[in-house]
User: Fold this.
Amino acid sequence: MDQLVNDSTGRGSPEIWLEAAYDLLIESGVDAVKILTLAKKLNLARTSFYWFFKDREELLAELISRWRDKNTGNIVRQSEAYAESIAEAMLNVFDCWFDNALFDSQLEFAVRSWALQSDDILAEVRQSDQLRIEALTAMCARFGVDAATADVRARTIYLVQIGYLSMQTREDIAVRMRRIPNYVEIFTGQAPQPRELDRFFSRHGYSE
Assistant:
């Protein structure tokens, strides 16, 4: 980061300030994300911040935009991805829980913690929850699941994962992977085919 901060302007860049804000949010919560703290962390003048952001609220809005675009956006995209069966569609969604490039669990936890002290952020979280559940419901419906069952399955899928995040559950990767076929069958009513599991395991660098 030092090389990026020490640019020719001596002000850093929007990305540098945002990344530093992200780090503070993850490490210490939203109250720690302050302009002076960021300036000290980056070894930049406090006034440099205002070349890129109007105020702290604009910076915080960018953090929420990152969370919304990455976490909610990728759950929706993965639920819409091509699949031969509902089991494979479920495995596409499971990619989010194993690939930080698709879903940032630390950011998710930080934003949900932030929502406990901000009605505006709580509204953002609730809206994203609804969008995610709707996407999972549509995924189930795409494979012929009736509306009522699709709704319950979507909520079960989603609330289990949010429970994992909220409880900060830690599992050995081998244990978690062994549970995947059972989760898929419980969530979808269909056991994944060996070839579907093989593809899933392969893209996450796991071998039984």
Notes: Confidence is low (pLDDT under 50) at residues 1-6. The two ends are 38 Å apart (CA to CA). The chain is about 70% helix and 0% strand. Residues 56-80 form the longest helix (25 residues).
